[in-house]
Amino acid sequence: MTRAKRPRLIARTELRRRWRTMKGNTMQLLAFAFAAVMLLPFSLGGVFGAYLAGGFVAGSETEPLIEWARMAFVYGWIFVVGFGGYRAYAVALRPDNLDGLLTTVSHRDVIGGLVLAELVLWSAFFLTAGSAATVAFAVGAGSLLMIPALLFTLCLVLVTGIPAGFLLALGVRNAGVRSRLLSRLRTLFLVLLGIGYFALIFTNAFTSVLEPIYRVLAPTPIDWFGDLAATGLGIRASPLRAIGAVGFTGVFVAVAVASLYRLSAWLWYADGVHITHEVERSDNGSSRFNGLSRILTQPVFGVVAVDWKRARRSPISLSFALYPLIVLAGPIVTAVQTGDIGTGLPLWILLSGTWVAGSLFALNVLGQEGAALPVTLLSEAPERSLIIGHVLSGALLIAPITIAATVISGLLSPHSIPVVASLGVSALVLSAVSGAIGTGVGVGFPRFEAVSVSRSTKAIVPSAFAFAIYSVTVLVVALPTVIAHSGIAGHALASVIGVNQFVIGLGGTLISAVLACLVGIVSMYIARDRVRNYRLA
């Protein structure tokens, strides 16, 4: 095999491997299909918007248009570099069996194949939605000659942006493998980065963050891509800048290839720093949980301590429990943008906290034991300690947060103080009992095999079917509380019956509490019976 064919073979193999991995993960495949369906209306809207933009350009003065074109391509290049760098860091630079690849081919072939695979994936989107938007814009502007110029410019943005993203990712990873401090703080950096990202979404402050980057890149040849794309549009694009954009691409690619070779060699052949963690020598963790160990029995306390230690050592394995928090995005964004907390936000917090508390540890009682399951089943009365321990693990962690957040948001909302007190009681009962509801569902549909929760991490998480059934059950149980405390439904019921809304809220709290306790007792009975009679095949 010639050397030129090796990167193509690696790229083809990497694409096939990613497709097989996605097909083998039903949840990931469904998430991808859902994202595609959700993005379809935005893509169609983008194509129609491009047509309208073309018509606007055709009927406007030419003076500011070239500046807008340059600005658009600078921001587009930033987008490609940013998301390309993220994908390179999280996915592309971590191929399977990397050590085996490096013993058969050079690092140049490997990095070339990985970059080529990313270019193919990005090109698939640009050749569909990008081409449609380009044609729509050209038709709207009445200048079909700009179609090849605009498509050619998009290709140059990809050819320069994707390698630039890889260079950023390689720089970050090289710093991480050589710095003991950065290795220790990697998790903290990732958490802060995630918090910052969601803060940008909630506050809609992307412009304030990207504007300094734009000011740095605007005087560079990246700004020339706008002139190249506008060739033939008649908006005073500079031919010299357009030619310079092509020349800049050639020089940039040559420098990027040499830099990619060097940085990938430094990363993959590096003898990185090693972090050794001091082993805890406490027999039962009582030195850290003295108060809790005196209240709970030793078997139950052992389950709680193990759950919390697992969560601390591998928090990403609990990432599935964050999905319910997605429902909070809309209400929080609305509250931040309007500066006003409505009557609905406390209800969303109550519902999300209840959802998380029950799913965190109690939704896979058997499967969560992993290799220790045979030993656990041979212990004395394992069903009691397992079920109660997993229920308490989530309740003790999440219930206080749910109660505090619900009460604080309720006090800041138009709810009266008695209604807020009723909401607090609902938060206490539902978040404490939701784990009991999850136990029976979890043992009915357990999952014992590990699945991928990130590119390089596998963990045993609850099955999708169990998570769906549990979610529906929690929604049904919490529905009386939600209706009774709703600013619309609760007020309407109070007006029809002729009582204070606090009475309606208290009634909803009592109904939800009774339902939660009944369902929780039945669920725990089913879980106890299944665990007691469970036999390994």
TrEMBL record:
This is ABC-2 type transport system permease protein. It comes from Halorubrum trueperi. The keyword Membrane applies. Keywords: Membrane, Transmembrane, Transmembrane helix. The chain crosses the membrane at residues 73-93, 114-139, 145-168, 188-210, 242-261, 320-339, 345-366, 387-413, 419-443, 464-483, 503-527.
